[in-house]
Amino acid sequence: MTKLTLGTHPFLLGFEQLERLAERAAKTGNDGYPPYNIEQTSGTSYRITLAVAGFSEDDLSITLEDNQLVIRGKQTDDTDGRTFLHRGIAARQFQKSFVLADGVDVGEARIENGLLHVDLSRKVPQSVVQTIKIRRS
Predict the structure, then answer these.
(1) Which of the residues 4, 7, 117, 136 could staple to 19 if both were Cys, CB 3.0 to 4.6 A apart?
(2) Concatenated DSSP letters for 57-94?
(3) For the chain, which domains are there?
(4) pTM for this structure?
């Protein structure tokens, strides 16, 4: 018996990329740090919020690589000359990846009260009806 995948289904022509996209999203390797929220702020816009307490703007980078939004954080270790009796706030680096659909644009990013907000918007495609003329052979 042959396994029928999404990209090879006879009624889904041209959707091979969707299957590769789903595989890439599964391989992003995100752990639970830092915690984040994804919210829909309107019918065509979204916001990703990451808890980045202790990170400055210079410690963070946001890139878009082949429809994949990558947020990285790297803090410098400033423990020189300091003795910690308890260290519960570690200078930990992270990388979060979010696969974006075609037509989703990354807008503004800002830090507010230890939270990094990244706004996204989706373009609504216009409905197009096209009539195909049938020729005689």
Answers:
(1) 7
(2) GGGEEEEEETTEEEEEE------TT---S---S----E
(3) 30-77+85-122 (2.60.40.790)
(4) 0.73
